[in-house]
Amino acid sequence: MKLPSQSTFALVAFAAFSYAKTIYTGDTLQGYPVIASLDINDVPVNQISRFWLSPASGQGGLPYFLPIFVARGSEESLETGRKFSLSASIHGDELNPVAVVQKVFARLNETVASGDFNGTVIGLPTQNPNGNLMNQRYFYTSSSNGFLTDLNRNFPGMSIAEAGSLPMSYTAAIWNDIWGNTSNVDIAVDLHTLSTGSIGPLWVYADYALEGVQRIAELAQPDMIKIDPGQSGTIETSFVERGIPAITLEIGPANNWNGTLISRAVDFVFRLMDDLQMTSGETPTPDLSNTYIATNFSDVMVSHSGWVELDVTTMYDVTEGQVVGRVYNSWGDVLETLTSAVNGRVLTALVDPAVEAESQEQSRR
Fold this sequence. Notes:
The chain has two domains: 23-276, Zn peptidases (Aminopeptidase, 3-Layer(aba) Sandwich); 298-355, CATH 2.40.50. The protein is 23% helix and 27% strand. It contains eight helices and 21 strands. It has an eleven-stranded mixed sheet, with helices on both faces. Strands 18-17-15-21 form a four-stranded antiparallel sheet, with no helix packed on it. Strand 7 and strand 8 (147-149) form a beta hairpin. Residues 1-18 and 361-365 have low confidence and may be disordered.
């Protein structure tokens, strides 16, 4: 009997680990199957499928569930098309992104069913239903007296078996069981808004050091692009560090649906899919005539707690030394005058007038 060569063993081992089927738990929720992990290779072709995945359970063993869209093109599109992740609401007060994902998949229905869709899109309309329920940016764990964790500083996560915390195991489940540790994704857009209490435009974080990122950012045609080295633990940077082009798209303020910004974000997603030849539109030429390109942030800090009144708002141009606002005490006396330290353009501004000493006048990511 002839034994396989060493290289044959290596090939067999690689094949065993390179293909993993979608695992169904046998449960359903609201009529859709619950899965333990996703593999886009065996998702039905030429249709949009809906799944649930439970990334973790909270106190008392009650599971969290994440809704997942998968728009799958033809069988051959796994080879000819791209694998695009569109994720939203990793922070619970970020609601514009929820509508963007919903509207993208509603518009994709006819295209996918026609057999003209080339590729796969994974859509996560909300990644933090815990935060949505509590109207809270962060993820709440109730052990001891309770803790709040920023999930978007905990990717790609770590399982409980690897000594990870509950929030880390939660993000690990998204990373591994939905995105397949990048095997299901080769390009990504993570959708956000500002935190509660601030306003801002449509803008992008983009790490131009990775090839392909600049093109995605420009196709968004945002009001501002922040060329940025990234933030460790975020979805965007976790993909970029592994060679997957990705951006963070910020879609205005938290806790409301802004129809204009939502529509602009949806249009961007379809421009991107045209550019990737996933859909049949012409290759777009980005219009950056109204886009401000930034490389640095400058924050206006307050040294007194009180009530802030601003003279400027988002997208205003300011000059170094210009007065941009004042902080008052409860009697209406001026405690301090706020000035800009640089020449630039206002990206975000507070609409919540209550401020604390040393806080940022602007709030981001």
